[in-house]
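Sequence, please.
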């Protein structure tokens, strides 16, 4: 039996103390806001906070959190819905219109659904790069235009990381490489030299099966 403090509540759990926190939360406590992704500490889908520190719960045993504060996404009242089960329009019926939408799916048609899901004065942030030639139709353009103008809605595009995020990313990658030597080289399959060669990157991304590409990246300048 171990006791964990999860979102401010003491939980007595009859589990092996090496059970990963991810499964402790999801399967034992039925707190499914914490997601399973890679299961290897690489993707971050399972991130929780332990004493305020972001921690990958899939590779952290429950005993590591004994005597500490575990905080999950449920603590901020968040819920998780997938558009494979609920459309954006249906989610508006469920939760009402959104004040802020941060779009980073990599699926461009959903942008138009998101534009129609915004509340008055709402902001839609586009942060995914879609390099294909996809088009979409049946967009109610008059309605969208009218709602944006009269409802003071805004849409902006951004790259979703600053320098410190890239530095954190480099740190994480270096840590993973130390833990799993050779892993990084297998993931970073295609290097393109120079930002000016962006067209090559899109060519690889759009034909990733043919190129056998997993991750394509720019070398901005040699290090
Ligand atoms: S599931 Fe990917 S880091 Fe934990």
């Amino acid at each position: 039996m171990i006791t964990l403090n999860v979102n401010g509540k003491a939980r007595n759990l009859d589990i092996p103390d090496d059970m990963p926190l991810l499964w402790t939360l999801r399967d034992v406590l039925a707190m499914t806001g914490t997601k399973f992704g890679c299961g290897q500490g690489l993707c971050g889908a399972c991130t929780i906070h332990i004493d305020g520190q972001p921690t990958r719960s899939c590779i952290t045993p429950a005993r590591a959190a004994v005597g500490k504060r575990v905080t999950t996404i449920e603590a901020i009242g968040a819920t998780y819905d997938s558009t494979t089960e609920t459309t954006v329009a249906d989610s508006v019926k469920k939760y009402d219109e959104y004040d802020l939408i941060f779009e980073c799916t990599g699926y461009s048609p959903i942008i138009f659904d998101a534009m129609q899901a915004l509340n008055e004065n709402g902001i839609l942030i586009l942060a995914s790069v879609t390099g294909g030639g996809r088009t979409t139709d049946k967009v109610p353009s008059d309605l969208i235009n009218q709602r944006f103008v009269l409802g003071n809605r805004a849409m902006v595009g951004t790259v979703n990381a600053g320098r410190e995020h890239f530095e954190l990313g480099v740190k994480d990658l270096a840590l993973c490489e130390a833990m799993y030597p050779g892993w990084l080289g297998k993931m970073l399959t295609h290097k393109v030299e120079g930002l000016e060669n962006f067209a090559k990157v899109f060519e690889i991304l759009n034909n990733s099966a043919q190129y056998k590409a997993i991750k394509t990246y720019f070398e901005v300048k040699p290090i």
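The two ends are 51 Å apart (CA to CA).
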